[in-house]
UniProtKB/TrEMBL annotation, chain A:
GO terms for cellular component: plasma membrane. One of its GO terms (molecular function) is P-type potassium transmembrane transporter activity. It comes from Pedobacter cryoconitis. PANTHER family: POTASSIUM-TRANSPORTING ATPASE A CHAIN, POTASSIUM-TRANSPORTING ATPASE POTASSIUM-BINDING SUBUNIT. The chain crosses the membrane at residues 6-27, 67-85, 133-154, 175-194, 258-276, 283-301, 373-398, 418-441, 491-519, 539-558. It is found in: Cell membrane. Keywords: Cell membrane, Ion transport, Membrane, Potassium, Potassium transport, Transmembrane, Transmembrane helix, Transport. This is Potassium-transporting ATPase potassium-binding subunit. Belongs to the KdpA family. The gene is kdpA. Part of the high-affinity ATP-driven potassium transport (or Kdp) system, which catalyzes the hydrolysis of ATP coupled with the electrogenic transport of potassium into the cytoplasm. This subunit binds the extracellular potassium ions and delivers the ions to the membrane domain of KdpB through an intramembrane tunnel. The system is composed of three essential subunits: KdpA, KdpB and KdpC. InterPro entries: KdpA. It is a multi-pass membrane protein.
UniProtKB/TrEMBL annotation, chain B:
Belongs to the KdpC family. It comes from Pedobacter cryoconitis. The system is composed of three essential subunits: KdpA, KdpB and KdpC. The lineage of its organism: Bacteria, Pseudomonadati, Bacteroidota, Sphingobacteriia, Sphingobacteriales. It is found in: Cell membrane. It is a single-pass membrane protein. This is Potassium-transporting ATPase KdpC subunit.
Length: 572, 188
């Protein structure tokens, strides 16, 4: 029992030991200062030359966003067609079929936006080729897109007044060559030596010890699983994701995968403070995020270790907690930690089936995704947090009667409007999406579709509602985990979540960058006694309060109908 | 705009080579030096492959230790969990049924002897492990069926238990396939 809790503490501490120096390194890399990985420069120059890019060309925030959107649209079109015709392309040793148009639509958006919601199963729905040139490729580049966007945001606040915010391609390429690729190589080798397959052999077949005939899906998963976590992507090689013994062979690899998904989000927060020369601010942000994580983590672990009260009534012993949907080699404690980490950070890989978690665990998972800024995804976590911060600046400014300012730039109506729009988008997409799904389920259950809406849910009652709410929340947060009992590979879910995914990714990137770009270009006002300081404890707590109040107001009614109602029926 | 499109296309092509050809080939090369040569480590008995070290398989015969229930029948090319919610009445009935069937095959047990991992499905459907308690409750049945000394079987289980990682972190587990292969080898 205690060994299970020690495991969580050790894993988190090791995360910090790696993430903090990594943050210092990243600040230097993106500031163009000397670092030990500069020997990679010739490779980067080669990439720029082959792509016709001049990395010294300066861009303003609008040009950055144009470059970002252009390359993302290129990936959308390219990936859609590769998925549609994957059966006819090479490297398909298991002869898996092509994707239907609506499934390809959903899958390609989902991978471009760093979500990795998977309505297909890796063993039967994709080929070795598409797992590489679509899924794994996008796991690298979508993470690099998020990191590059965050660096643009950093740039806006480094100098007193800035319109030239560096070159998007340079940030993007460096995020891959200096960060994602080297770390992935190290991690992939660790996984390969722990038992994850890495070669291209097709399905295997053997006769089991008691005489059953068994087929085994394999394939080069080690490299895939590495970037899936480092890039906070979460899409699995196998259907069962990181619960699969080949994708996550042991307690040790489980900790490696847990550490991998948290280091870059934390490192980006540290890098922010060093980059803009305000370290105290980034420690304050890190503090709020960590408190937020603990507020979700502690009740999650307590609800999982308590076990299922309905099973307790049957008289069996729940040694270490709830075990449905969990793996023995991890145990419920670190599985609870994983479920918190994977939902606050937009990874969405799972090492247990979230659908089978205790009702309150589901509540904390949903809240983690709704807030989406406690560490958050690769790069985008900082951007999401920034929106809350701007709202907090505005509200505190009003409360104390001062002009709202952030880092010496006046926050005016235009910036607040953008922040308000971004803030309202999430509840709108999640709640309207869930409402639409519930409406179709209840009133058009018998519609003559290929998959009848009344067969969507795997569980009756409140839990069934949670399945739909979770799917929309996960899509909006670009998380990708699911209450996988939901029958989601059909036209309604593929198309509706496709749109939610797209909007939930790009508006929360463009919004904060626009605010940062507008603020950065304004005249710098020197600090005075009248300045609202943003790196104080009071202001940090204010931001935390804003985060909690905004999300509670938006989502409490929906959460009451789902996990809370289930919780109270289960304990009665 | 046109400039960005061209740059995007060319950069995408270059990165496809770097990330989807060079990177996985390096990993595959490194992996070829691992225990399973990059294809997954196999378990053999008398020179015959009987399974993968990491993948659980179905055991239903009374002379073997049984693994955890699997939502996919230990199909190693279609992993998955039950995704049943904790309050689902059909699911709870199913768990109750599993308890009854365990009691039928192990009449010497009380309900409170049964650890919950033996009556709940794993996340992957391929969980290779059970808890130490889950193995302990089966010792008597297996020993009776194989006409072995109970202590002999208990010692074998003890030998197969894998403690926490580095002795400090995580749960203790028993790999069912490893235990059953050891049992079969014991008989000779």
């Amino acid at each position: 029992m205690n060994t299970e809790l020690f495991g969580i503490v050790a894993t988190y501490l090791l995360t910090l030991v790696i993430a903090i120096p990594l943050g210092k390194y990243l600040a230097k890399v993106f500031a163009g200062e000397k670092v030990w990985t500069d020997f990679l420069k010739p490779i980067e120059s080669g990439i720029y030359k082959l792509s016709g890019i001049n990395p010294k060309e300066q861009m303003n925030w609008k040009q950055h966003m144009k470059a970002l959107m252009t390359i993302n649209l290129v990936w959308l079109v390219y990936g859609f067609f590769v998925l549609m015709y994957q059966d006819k392309l090479p490297l398909n040793p298991d002869h898996n079929p092509a994707m239907s148009p609506d499934l390809a639509f959903n899958t390609i958006i989902s991978f471009v936006v760093n979500c990795n919601l998977q309505q297909y199963s890796g063993e039967s729905g994709a080929t070795y080729l598409t797992q590489h040139v679509v899924m794994m490729f996008l796991q690298f580049v979508s993470a690099a897109t998020g990191i590059a966007a965050a660096v643009v945001f950093f740039k806006a606040f480094r100098d007193k007044t800035a319109t030239n915010l560096g070159n998007f391609w340079e940030f993007f390429v460096k995020a891959i060559t200096r960060l994602l690729l080297p770390l992935s190589l190290i991690m992939a080798v660790i996984l390969a030596f722990s038992g994850t397959p890495s070669n291209y052999e097709a399905k295997d077949h053997f006769i089991s010890l008691q005489g059953d005939s068994v087929n085994v899906s394999r394939g080069p998963a080690a490299g895939f699983v590495a970037i899936k976590h480092l890039g906070t992507n979460g899409g699995g090689w196998f259907g069962a994701n990181s619960a699969h013994p080949l994708e996550n062979p042991s307690y040790f690899t489980n900790s490696v995968e847990l550490i991998a998904q948290v280091i870059i989000p934390i490192a980006m927060v540290i890098a922010f403070g060093i980059f803009i020369r305000r370290r105290k601010l980034s420690w304050m942000i890190f503090g709020v995020m960590t408190i937020g994580m603990l507020l979700l983590l502690i009740p999650t672990i307590s609800s999982e270790l308590g076990g299922n009260p309905a099973i307790a009534k049957m008289g069996v012993t729940q040694l270490s907690g709830a075990m449905e949907g969990k793996e023995m080699r991890f145990g419920p404690a670190i599985t609870g930690y994983w479920s918190t980490v994977t939902t606050i950070i937009s990874t969405g890989s799972v090492n247990s089936m979230h659908d089978s978690a205790m009702p309150l665990t589901g509540l904390w998972q949903l809240l983690g995704m709704m807030i989406n800024a406690f560490y958050g995804g690769c790069g985008v976590g900082m951007l999401n947090y920034f929106i809350y911060l701007i709202i907090a600046v505005f509200i505190s400014g009003l409360m104390v009667g001062r002009t709202p300012e952030f880092l010496g730039h006046k926050v005016e109506a235009r910036e607040i409007k953008i922040a308000a729009l971004v803030t309202l988008l999430s509840p709108f997409l999640i709640l309207a999406g869930t409402a639409l799904a519930s409406y179709v389920f209840t009133t058009h259950g018998n519609a003559a579709w290929a998959v009848q809406p009344k067969t969507w849910l795997n569980n009756p009652g409140f839990h069934g509602f949670s399945e739909m709410l979770y799917q929309m929340t996960s899509s909006n947060a670009n998380n990708g985990s699911g209450f996988e009992g939901l029958g989601d590979n059909n036209i309604f879910w593929n198309v509706s979540t496709g749109f939610v995914l797209f909007l939930g990714r790009f508006i929360p990137i463009i919004g904060p960058i626009a605010i940062a770009g507008l603020l950065g270009a304004k005249k710098h006002i020197p600090e005075s006694a009248g300045t609202l300081k943003t790196d104080t404890l009071t202001f940090s707590l204010m931001t935390l309060a804003v985060i909690i109040v905004l999300n509670a107001l938006s989502y409490f009614p929906a959460l009451t109908l789902g996990p809370l109602a289930e919780y109270f029926t289960l304990i009665k | 705009m046109k400039k960005y499109i061209l740059q995007s296309l060319r950069l995408t092509a270059v990165l496809l080579v770097l990330l989807c050809v060079i990177y996985p080939l390096i990993v595959a090369f490194a992996g070829s030096f691992s225990k399973g040569q990059g294809g997954g480590e196999k378990i053999t008995k008398n020179g015959q492959v009987v399974g993968y070290a990491l993948l659980g398989q179905s055991f239903t015969k009374p002379q073997y230790f049984w693994g955890r229930p699997s939502a996919v029948g230990y199909k190693a090319d279609g992993s998955g969990g039950s995704n049943k919610g904790p309050s689902n009445p059909d699911y709870l009935k199913e768990v109750n049924g599993r308890i009854d069937s365990l009691l039928k095959y192990h009449p010497y047990l009380k309900r409170s002897d049964i650890p919950s991992d033996m009556v709940t499905a794993s996340g992957s459907g391929l969980d290779p492990n059970i808890s130490v308690e889950g193995a302990a409750i089966q010792i008597k049945r297996v020993a009776q069926y194989r006409k072995l000394n109970e202590k002999e079987v208990a010692d074998l289980v003890k030998k197969t238990v894998k403690g926490p990682f580095l002795g400090l972190f995580g749960p203790s587990t028993v790999n069912v396939l490893e235990l059953n292969v050891a049992l079969d080898n014991l008989k000779k």
